Amino acid sequence: MVDVATILAGFGDAFTLWNLMFVLFGVVVGQFVGAVPGIGPVMAMAIAIPFTFGLDTLPAIAFLVGVNKGGLVGGAVPAVLMNTPGTPDAAATALDGYPLARKGKPLKATKMALFSSITGDTFSDIVLITVSAPLAILALRMGPVEVFALMIFAFAVLSGLIGNSLFKGIIAAALGLLAASIGADPEHYTPRLIFGHYEVYDGLPLASVAIGMLAISEILRRLSQIRGRMRPAIVVVETDDPNDKRVTWAEYWGCRYTMLRGASIGTVLGALPGIGSTAAAFMSYAATKAGSKEPETFGKGNLHGIAAAESANSAVVGANLIPLLTLGIPGSVGAALIISAFMIHGVQPGPLLFQDQGRLIYGLFGAMVLANFMNLWVGQLGLRFWIKVVSAPESMIFASALLLCIVGVSMATGGLFGVAVMLMFAALGYLMTAFGYSVVIFIIAFFLGPRFEISLSQSLAITNGDLTKIANYPIALVLLGLAVASFIWFLSRSKVDEADT
Amino acid sequence: MKLGRKILSALAATTLFVAGAAVAQDWQPDGDIKLQIGFGAGGSTDVMGRVLAQTIEEQTGWNVIAENKTGGGGMAMFTVISKMPANNNIIGLGVNMPVMINLVKRPDEVPFNLDSFDYVGTLSRAQLALIARADAPFDNLAEMVAYSKANDGVAVGFGAAPQKLLMEVVNKQDDAGFRFVSTEGEAETQKLLLGGQILAGYSAGTHVPYLESGDFKMIAVGNNARHDYAPDTQTFVEQGYNAYVDPYWFLAMTAGTDPAAVKAIAAAVDAAVNSDAVAEIVANAASSTPLNLGSDGTKKMLVEGLDNVRVLFAD
Q1: Between chains, do B47 and A343 touch, taking CB under 8 Å as contact?
Q2: In angstroms, rounded to a whole number, what is the distance separating the alpha carbons of residues B168 and B181?
Q3: Helix, strand, coil content of chain B in percent (nearest 5)
Q4: Which distant-in-sequence residues (6+ apart) come within 8 Å of B63 by Cβ?
Q5: Do A464 and B153 touch (CB under 8 A)?
Q6: Parallel, antiparallel, or unpaired: how do β-strands B33-37 and B90-95 relate?
Q7: Among A318, A342, B98, B142, which is most buried by a count of CB atoms within 10 Å?
Q8: Contacts of A327 in chain B (CB under 8 A)
Q9: Is residue B14 part of a domain?
């Protein structure tokens, strides 16, 4: 147990002017790169790490945490304003954020995203700071069999997003899983569908698929619709009602249960390494839609939809640090980069981290809390700036977004191969949208596919190929039961919806 | 003209300076040096590669840029390097095992062989260990085999093909009945060990703090020699199984690179590998020590390693 003096000393370290500057700088950089389509906070952290070589450990880590947190807030901006999410978790935000922005309320939509993102982030930070040790032990109990059951539960919940045509939804999911199976299989390392390209031996580059499917295909669609007169990419409708430009306290408070649910889903999934913010954002969104009294308003600019997605995906990032700090196990690429920064500064993560480096860890916690506040302030200013930017003519906005996506993907994947993959998936995304297949379902299946496969392979090895042994795993049984229940619930609801319409 | 004379003398001084620098160091890179890392950002190879690049830059004044070229444990990067025209600027950093396994298993599909490269040196040797929870009912391979036979098999975690192969040697020799649980790397292996879902697994260094904290113990050493931090743990060979894995981080350039460039870069890498900064990061990221076999030693290591891998894969 860390004593109080160490905790106070750690927080004291965080609140120096020097550290404050690095947190602020990190948040500004993070929000900027998050909002620019194509680069993203992970890329920014990878680039920034060498620049932290010369810094002390705490400012270096605080800076990276600032970039990571700022990126979360920034990531919602292109999703809401242009419907071009740079990361798949922001795609959930776009589902309701973009329709609201189209209604002439981009400030309201982005502010709701900002507030719920910070709410979710702060929630998971508080969990991390107070109860990370017991939560980490709980996460350890979630073995491959339980994670496998959790994945099935996730797929069942996500079936609530399939929409009108069950068959088209299943085809989109199957295509996503097919794309996820490209690369070496997890058990025998046999290359599948790589056609001699070792670049995809470890699977398709995630950035290429996500940005191609989500951002480029949308940009292509919008460019193809440009006719005649120049229009701004987004129109801010000037009304007399000031509430169209802000989120009122009543609206925020009305979303409290949505955000609490989102933050809880995000925190739980974040504490389990390797599942990720995409699943969290969409599960939270689907659960909120299912629990809503007016599910037909979702996808048309419902504030609850924005709050559900943003609170969940932001909560994942704080919770990803739970396995990292308690066990030395990174839960995501962003967390792995923070570990590498620890190593570069001579700190070895692992079970003794709190004992050996308690002051540093509490300094980091202090920096995280600071970063949340700064995110709020910088975000309030930044949103106005971004809305000004996207009020420029859409031919200019989309052309530059296209360029940035190409540059960003080429940087993230280390060359033009990734750009070629991105363009292929842009074409696929364009066609899928045109024929009414959900790109979102594809992306979710693609992102969950590898974890699903490896959990299945691990479960089979652990149970000696006998899946009836699953009866010995109570948590898995409960999750499977929940999966069946929610699948039936969603099916019956979609029947009701059809009857209504 | 005063100005003309000034320019002339400045030019003369510059020429002298450049000539002097050239005498001091035979070869200088023409532009940036790129250190291509065959693994993704955030991993141990990435971290060590970035510190190596930084150290070379500080020691030589060259501009060294580290970039990630992922795919197939370095195979994508080495494929590209083998195919490009000889140049004096691009160095690949990868691990020998994925390269050798692919050369042995899929020689027709791999577009290069060991002669496709000029070798610069090695950075370190990974210390591969078979570990188990501290409360596991076995302390060495013989006891582990016996326990596995008595209990319907022991679940063993592995994060890469050679680790599984090493264990299959034991399986084949003693019919131990080990079950193999594939993980995404040693971090996940350790999570499953701590959670009790598997009883044993492989780790290349990050387990050392857990030895100190008393969570894990070591069952066997995967390398050909024991590890400094655990001198009492025997190798697989010492425990009666004639197989080992020696993963090296090595650096290579396209074959046909100017010998003067290879020599100068190899010297720069050697100086960096022997620096305190690299020693510290190798200790932190891989719980190992820097080790440079040099240009010729690296090639020898790969040629001999290839024979060893053939033995491992022999059916």
Answers
A1: yes
A2: 13
A3: 50, 20, 35
A4: B31, B32, B33, B57
A5: yes
A6: parallel
A7: A318
A8: 190-191, 194
A9: no
Nearest to A244 by CA among A112, A110, A108: A108
* Residue B2 covered by a domain: no
3-class state of residue A482 by DSSP: helix
Is residue B253 domain-shared with residue B304, that is, in the same domain?
yes
Q: What is the ipTM of this complex?
A: 0.88
B140 at A interface, C-beta within 8 A? no
Domain extent for B173: 129-221
| Phi, psi dihedral angles at A284 (to 5 degrees) | -65, -40
pLDDT of residue B180: 95
Residues of A in contact with B212 (CB under 8 A): 352
**Alpha-carbon distances of B285 from A249, B126, B278, rounded to whole Å:** 48, 10, 10
The neighbouring-strand residues paired with B251 are B93, B121
Q: Return the C-alpha torsion angle A375, A378, A384, A385, nearest 10.
A: -120
d(CA A332, CA A272): 10
What is the maximum span of chain B, computed from C-alpha positions, in angstroms? 98
Judged by DSSP in three states, B166 sits in: helix
pLDDT digits (tens, 9 = 90+) for B131-170: 999 999 999 999 999 999 999 899 999 998 889 989 999 9
Report the CATH number that the domain containing residue B59 is assigned in CATH.
3.40.190.150
**Is B111 found in the same domain as B259?**
yes
The pLDDT > 70 percentage for chain A reads 98
Clarify whether residues B197 and B265 are in a common domain: no
Chain B residues lying within 8 Å of A329, measured CB to CB: 187-188, 190-191
Instruction: Report the DSSP pairing between strands B64-68 and B33-37.
Output: parallel
Test A144 with B184 for CB contact under 8 angstroms. Answer: no
Per-block mean pLDDT, blocks of 10 residues, chain B (315 long) = 58 52 67 93 89 95 92 90 94 95 88 95 95 96 96 92 91 94 89 93 90 94 93 96 93 96 96 95 90 96 91 71
Answer yes or no: is B43 within a domain: yes
Say if B137 is an interface residue toward chain A (CB within 8 Å).
Answer: no
The DSSP result for B265-300, as a single string, is: HHHHHHHHHTSHHHHHHHHHHHSS-B---HHHHHHH
**CB neighbour list of residue B170: distance below 8 Å, 6 or more residues apart:** B141, B145, B176, B178, B236, B241
Instruction: With CA atoms as reference, report the closest residue to A453 among A202, A151, A224.
Output: A151
DSSP one-letter code for A295? G
Name residues 179-238 of chain B within 8 A of A (Cβ): 179-184, 187-188, 190-192, 194-198, 206, 209-210, 212-213, 215
For the cut 70, the answer to whether the pLDDT of residue A69 exceeds it is: yes
Q: Which residue of A has its CA nearest to B108?
A: A196
Query: Which of B178, B204, B221 is the endpoint of a domain?
Result: B221
| Calpha distance A487→B197 (Å, rounded) | 29
Is B51 in CB contact (< 8 Å) with chain A?
yes
Q: Do A62 and A364 touch, CB atoms closer than 8 A?
A: yes
CATH number of the domain at B153, please.
3.40.190.10
Do B143 and B119 sit in the same domain of this protein? no
Q: What is the pLDDT of residue B12?
A: 58
| Tens of pLDDT, residues A286-297 | 999 988 988 889
Q: Which of residues 28-47 of B touch A (CB under 8 A)?
A: 36, 40-44, 46-47
Helix/strand/coil for B93: strand
Q: How many residues appear in chain A? A: 501
SS3 B95: strand
Residue B188 lies in a domain: yes
**CB contact (8 A) between residue A352 and residue B76:** no
Residue where the block lists tokens 């979102």:
A440
Domain count of chain B?
2
Reading the block at residue B198, the tokens are: 């598997």
